[in-house]
Amino acid sequence: MSDTPDFQDDPARSTKSDERTAFLILAVVLAPALAVAIVGGWGFFVWILQMFYGPPTG
Fold it and tell me: Are 8 and 2 a contacting pair, CB within 8 Å?
């Protein structure tokens, strides 16, 4: 019997399909949602500022 762990029996070991699924979720769902949230939040912030300080003057 050896002291090295047997990774075949480890249920927490990630497989290529698990990694691919995680990547697709991050790339297809999380990244666009985060981008929309950041841009929308910035737009809301500018809108609120313009309500208090008026539009930019040139």
Answer: no
